């Protein structure tokens, strides 16, 4: 029995463009290594500037030229043929694959106009027919998509519709873009949503998992700055394993860049580490604003607690009840100050918004923080105790009433 590919025929155009970009990129890398080795620098010397010359340089330029010519021809043919074949239905496997690809290369896909780039949208839950004035937006994390809120037979959105009467709306976005870019786009999307919703919006809540919580914080900032109407409807903001102060996994990737760059013989290989998206590098310290990355080298190596490389302080929105849930692989229950391992991705202090710098700490009261013990980062999407706490927070007094 042959397995069915998760991709559609219409994805071939995007895949071919990506293959072309990869071929040119590999050619650049090989030429850089060839050039550096030919200059015979010292082991830890500085890479020699410039490119290969003469016949060698002509060969590399020819390879790039032929690759682009062939790739352009394939793209032109596919552009004419694929519309004639009709649109195929998607599948969860395809959506998961595209989400992962966008998480890693999403900024490049968007900048190059690749049709595999995801466009931001809100998807309603088809199994929840009533349209109410109580809305909850669920924002997924890095390399994920809106369908992955359904996990182990559970869906926070569907359960909240049943238990509390919310209309769930699932955000789908390109997680490889800068968080500030997605935050601004979400703010605009929510403004359109509130204006066009078929019944008056009574209240709005946002549930953000991992990076989704950062995108929600960015949306609150940019929505208020733009004078949008939707922020006054926002009642509660719940973070599930959100890396408010970054993730050590991205900081580890930053050190790999540095290690590869110390020698001219390995420096070209550092380019491989730098294909990771802007969304991923934003997770180094939890960067939310354009000012955190504009005019800077996002791959610059962190140097201890160098304040210049840390993001600008961004407090939580005023008059919105904010809650933070963290997971830990540790099974021993203790207070919020107990030393416990992370959830595999996000440290507890980062997920709870705690920071040694008072200017960066989110200062969430302990009554609005909760730890799920013996759990992984993704268990926050389906664990019964996690859902029970989310439901308790949303049902608590303070959510109802007219917009502020």
What descriptive keywords fit this protein?
single chain, 2 domains, 7-stranded mixed sheet, two-stranded antiparallel sheet
Walkthrough of the structure:
The protein is an alpha/beta fold. It folds into 2 domains: 9-89; 91-404, 3-Layer(aba) Sandwich (Rossmann fold), CATH 3.40.50. It has 11 helices and 9 strands. It has helices at 12-38, 54-85, 92-111, 156-164, 179-196, 211-225, 248-260, 270-273, 278-282, 348-351, 384-395; strands at residues 121-124, 134-139, 150-151, 154-155, 167-172, 203-209, 234-240, 321-328, 369-373. A 7-stranded mixed sheet has the order 1-5-2-6-7-8-9, sandwiched between helices. A two-stranded antiparallel ribbon has the order 3-4. Helix 6 (211-225) links the parallel strand 6 and strand 7. Helix 1 (12-38) packs antiparallel against helix 2 (54-85) and helix 5 crosses helix 6 (211-225). The longest helix is centred in the N-terminal third of the chain and has 32 residues, at 54-85. The chain starts with 11 loop residues before the first helix and ends in a 9-residue tail after the last helix. 39% of the residues are buried.
